[in-house]
Amino acid sequence: MSTFAVKGTTGGAGGPHDGPVTGLPWAVLRLHRAALIAWGAFLLAAIGALVWEVEVTAESVRDRIAACGDDPGLCRIRALVDYSGTVSWASTLVYYSFFAVAAWAGAALIGRELENGTAQLAWTQSVSPTRWLAAKLAVPALLLTAGGTVFVFVFRWAWAAHRDLMGDDWTHTDIFAARGPAVVAYGLCGLGVGALAGVVLRRSLPALGVACVVMYLINHNLEEYRGQLWPTSGTAGPEGGPPDTWELPNGTLHPESHYWPLHLVETGIVLAVALVTTGTAFWLLRRRTA
């Protein structure tokens, strides 16, 4: 019997939690528990590193800077790297985790199930293809959204707690994404792209490769044209713009107040791609199984 025919833990025969349909979310959790546990552990490690930097490392870095003595420049830089480097790496790893999400969704979550016939077996047990795909995507989508949201709040706190110790400003690619919902949107987009690749190719390894390539193209182009997602508000002078401004190659500027407009426009684009790819995966699966 397929692992999708899972009975609930409460109620007798015919109870509200019995049957393959209501057991699908639990089946997804059981079948992919290793990947989901790894995602949770990864997020906890990133969050723990941020808390440690703010509460422990920052004070020791200030002591090192105060003791720099006759060589404050290089000494200060080395001390700052110990703090800002870890904070920046946390944002980088979580931001680019959408590659892992896309690869996992395309290869293990969807592609492998279609390739080895597990999905088709589930469809013979009162589980429609649409409900099967919905359950497959709902569980990781919920965990990505919840975990990513917690990370964003912790990262915003960590980034703002000791701004004088941070070497990267708001325009840095990874920090730009990690300070708001874009980091969650990219994760959901990776899930949708991976699901569509799995449904289209129906094989795990090709779906893995295609999902990663597509996510690279989406991310690369949005980063390339990020500064053009919102109108600029000034032009740099001969000596450059004011502090905390983003000077574009054409000499125009984005003040820090443009962070949220730029960020939310990019988030909207990424979420739109997530919705389109997910909707297309459902449509294609229904068409092929009609």
Give a topology summary.
Layout: H1 20-31, H2 33-66, H3 72-95, H4 98-115, H5 118-123, H6 129-161, H7 173-178, H8 182-201, H9 204-224, E1 234-235, E2 246-247, E3 252-254, H10 259-289
Antiparallel strand pairs: 1-3, 2-3
Helix pairs in contact: 1-6, 2-3, 2-6, 3-6, 4-8, 4-9, 6-8, 6-10, 8-9, 8-10
3D structure, described in words:
The chain is mainly alpha-helical and 290 residues long. Residues 1-21 have low confidence and may be disordered. It is elongated, with a radius of gyration of 23 Å. It has a three-stranded antiparallel sheet, with no helix packed on it. The protein has helices at 20-31, 33-66, 72-95, 98-115, 118-123, 129-161, 173-178, 182-201, 204-224, 259-289, and strands spanning 234-235, 246-247, 252-254. Helix 4 runs antiparallel to helix 9. 71% of the residues lie in helices and 2% in strands.
Give a quick account of the main beta sheet: strands, pairing sense, barrel closure.
3 strands, antiparallel
Could you tell me the mean pLDDT?
A: 85
Counting DSSP E segments of at least 2 residues, the number of strands comes to 3
* Helix and strand pattern: HHHHHHHHHEEEH
Taking the alpha carbons of the first and last residues, their distance comes to 23 Å
Number of DSSP helical runs: 10
